Amino acid sequence: MPRNYYSGGMTDRSQPEIHDFADAEHCVLEDVTVEHPKIYPEYLGSREPSEVIDEFVIGDPIRRSQTTVRIYAEGWLDIESGRPGKNPHLDRINLRYIDAVPTMERFYPVDLIKVTGIMAAVAVIASVPATLGWLTTYTLPTAVVAGAAAVAGSWLSFYRSHEKIVFQTLHGRAGAICLNARLGTIRRFQKIVPRLVEAIADAAQSVQEETAVYLRAEMREHYRLCNEGILTQEECAESTGRILKNFGGPL
Q1: 57 phi/psi in degrees, rounded to 5
Q2: Residue 249: its pLDDT value, please?
Q3: How would you classify residue 51: left for phi > 0, otherwise alpha for psi between -120 and 50, otherwise beta?
Q4: Which of 246, 221, 251 is nearest to 235 (CA)?
Q5: Contacts of 54 by beta carbon, 8 Å cutoff, 6+ apart
Q6: How far is CA 200 from the centre of its chain?
Q7: What does residue 197 show for φ and ψ, rounded to 5 degrees?
Q8: CA-to-CA separations, 152 to 41, 60, 61, in angstroms, rounded
Q9: CA 51 from centre of chain
Q10: pLDDT of residue 137
Q11: Are 93 and 224 within 8 A, CB to CB?
Q12: Per-residue buried b or exposed e for 95-117, using 16+ beta carbons within 10 Å of the residue's own CB
């Protein structure tokens, strides 16, 4: 049976050292419970990624950005994104807790597209009498302004349109992996998806823990993702709440 130790605020050299807790499952120091590392080695770093088995680099010259996706043999994924001259943003995800079935949503600025269409129609209508020399004082400026607005609207519509590819955590249903594929890079991002699905399936095969142990580890992965800024506090709370609800309360 695992032993528990308690230190009641000892301040002299008789305070126990960390090796005194080698066989303890938990130790409590100043009313703070610390879980022993050997209980959850997969969470505390013994499976840190080191061997890259696949790497995808997607550059977007229009938006001056680059996304690098690295898949590790240890079952981890890195998504590094940024712009030249700036420090890249790195997200690191443990694929052992990810659902292999992604969701895909396409986003288009519908209102902007409608306004662009109206401006294009106005430009065409105004350009007809302008080319015939009728009321050029009014129709020519109208055609020019409407045409410029239509071109600008088309560019903005292209720039803002994108497809979001999301992989959620297995039981918490939090969006841990999010790939924003813009027009011009959608096909290149889509080619990564089958490889990600395969990597997630391979990582799932390495899971050997009992259900309760695995679920505790998944909850801790949510906390790690929250600390890394990948999940918000609200998303973390909701996802861990789903685990507790779906599996009958405290684990």
Answers
A1: -120, 120
A2: 60
A3: beta
A4: 221
A5: 69, 70, 71, 195, 199
A6: 15
A7: -60, -40
A8: 54, 20, 19
A9: 21
A10: 75
A11: no
A12: bbbbbbebeeeeeebeeebebbe
For 128, the token pair is 């007809």
CB 159 within 8 A of CB 63: yes
Query: What's residue 135's pLDDT?
Result: 65
- Report whether 4 contacts 28 (CB < 8 A): yes
Q: Are 233 and 239 in contact (CB under 8 A)?
A: no
**Predicted pLDDT at 35:** 42
Residue 130: exposure state from Cβ atoms within 10 A (0-12, 13-18, ≥19): buried
Q: Which of 121, 116, 138 is CA-nearest to residue 129? A: 138
Which residue has tokens 């990597």?
199
How do strand 3-7 and strand 24-29 relate by DSSP bridges? parallel
User: Which stretches of the chain drop beneath a pLDDT of 50?
Assistant: 1-19, 21-22, 24-46
DSSP string, 91-105: EEEEGGGB-S--EEE
Determine the pLDDT at residue 46.
40
Question: Which structure tokens are listed for 71?
Answer: 């898949």
